Amino acid sequence: MRVLIAEDSVLLREGLTRLLEDGGIEVVAGVGDADSFRRRVRADPPDLCVVDVRMPPTNTADGLIAAIDLRSEFPDVGMLILSQYVEPHYALELLDSGADGVGYLLKERINSPREFLDSLHIVASGGTAVDPAVVSVLVGRPRRDDPLARLTERESNVLAAMAEGKTNSSIASGLYMSERTVESHVRSIFLKLDLHADEGSNRRVLAVLRWLRS
Fold it and tell me: Where do the DSSP E strands lie in 38-189?
């Protein structure tokens, strides 16, 4: 896997580089501003980019905006966005650009290297990984009248875990149920959300998107 790191903090950028390289991942470049990020990806697209939301030149959402723009140009390049704070609207803006191969994590997740690397691999393989803290905020929102209202509490818990990028096995362990039970809940979720088998593996991503956007 070839990864580009776009982070304006030199200390964090170097720390991420060390973490990824220790995990057997090739870091092809590290840049500190959104303009350099755009140029470097266009010159030699990596497999995945790890991107800070707030970067120069304006230090607002330059990193996120650049990531969304580059996703439209290079849809096969995964984007894992890092944020200092829980900002669900940024996560949703990223997902609106296309949910295959995107992630949104708080920077504090870097303190759990194994979990961070797992999320990175999920995104690189075309999955979706949303920080549990962001998922928690979204779970508590009032929801409009939509098919998601048909989900049971257990099914909603399973769908929330899917939004974090967890596999059925991981969901089963975290929710103290068998993997077969999780599979049953997942099938029920697909049925209630009218996601058909001919949509293939994308059904997990589509289910998560409907849940996050509702």
Answer: 48-52, 78-83, 102-106, 128-130
